[in-house]
Amino acid sequence: MPVKDSETAVELAPTELLVCTTCRMGQEIPEGGVRPGARLMSALEDMDWPEGVTVKPVECLSNCDEGCSVVLRGGGARWTYVYGRLTPDMAGVVHDGATRYHATDTGLVPWRERPEHFRKNCIARIPPLELPE
Amino acid sequence: MPVKDSETAVELAPTELLVCTTCRMGQEIPEGGVRPGARLMSALEDMDWPEGVTVKPVECLSNCDEGCSVVLRGGGARWTYVYGRLTPDMAGVVHDGATRYHATDTGLVPWRERPEHFRKNCIARIPPLELPE
Predict the structure, then answer these.
(1) Which of B17, B21, B23, B20 is nearest to B97 (CA)?
(2) Which residues of chain B make contact with A127, given a CB cutoff of 8 A?
(3) Regions of chain A with pLDDT less than 50
C-alpha cells in the first residue's frame, strides 16, 4: 500500500469521531450537571483537527458499563472501531488515535503506533462496508 | 413510522450478519480443531433466512474477552449492533434477533421484542451512517 504523503492525503475518506455524550461513567449526575461524556466531547470540540475529521456528539453507544466511549469510522474501505474506558481528561489520547486512524486507508493503524489506551481498550471493531467477497 | 407489511418488506435495506469465525471463547483449540466461532457460523449458514439477510464470516471483531460475537448492520439508515457472549449453540437466538432487526428501517427493535440474550449482551451500537445533523 503506498505511503500517503501530504500531497495525497486529501484523497483520504472523511473520518467521523462519534462521542457518546450521555455517558455517566456509572456516576450519579445531579440535575443540570454535566455528564462525563459531555465533558469529553467539549474537550474534543475545542481541539484542532486534521482536515477531514469531524467530531460529532451521539446518544448512547450502549457500552455503558465501560466508561466513556467513542467510535471511529469513515468511508466504505475503513474498519470501524469502538473504544471505551475513557475519562473526560483523555481528549489528547483520542485526538492522537483519531488522527492516526484518519491517516490510513483501511482504519488499521499498526499496533505499535496506536495510543496505549486504544491498544488495551478496543471494545469492538467492525469490518469495512466494502467487505472483500 | 409506517408498519411494514409483507407487501412493502421488499423495500427494506439488505442486512448483513457478520459472524466472527476466529473466536476461541478463551479455549485452547487443538490444531485442526473447529473454533467455537466457526461452529456458530456453520449453524447459522444452515438456517433459512428472510430475503435480504446475508450471513458472512469475518475475522476477529476484537471482542475476544466476551465470547462469540456477531454484528448486525444494513443500509445507511440503520444502527449497527455488536452482540457478544454467544456460544455455538445459540444460532436460534441470533436468527431471531437478526430477523427482527431486518424487519426494521432503523435497526431499533423495541426492547421487549429483542431476544433476552440480545438485551443483556449488547457490546456496543453504532449510529446510522446517515446521522441526523
Answers:
(1) B17
(2) 18, 58, 71
(3) 1-3, 5, 7-9
d(CA A51, CA B57): 34
Which among A72, A85, A82 is positioned nearest to A23, based on CA atoms?
Answer: A85
Per-residue pLDDT reduced to its tens digit, B42-96? 999 999 999 999 999 998 887 777 789 999 999 899 999 999 999 999 999 999 9
Our measurement of the distance from residue B120's CA atom to the centroid of its chain's CA atoms, rounded to an integer in Å, reads 14
If you count residue pairs, one on A and one on B, with CB atoms under 8 Å apart, how many are there? Answer: 63
Look at A62 and B18 and tell me if their CB atoms are within 8 Å. no
Q: In what order do the strands lie in the sheet with B122-126?
A: B53-58, B15-20, B68-73, B80-86, B122-126
| pTM: predicted TM-score of the whole model, two decimal places | 0.88
A18 at the B interface (CB within 8 A)? yes
- Could you give the ipTM of this predicted complex? 0.85
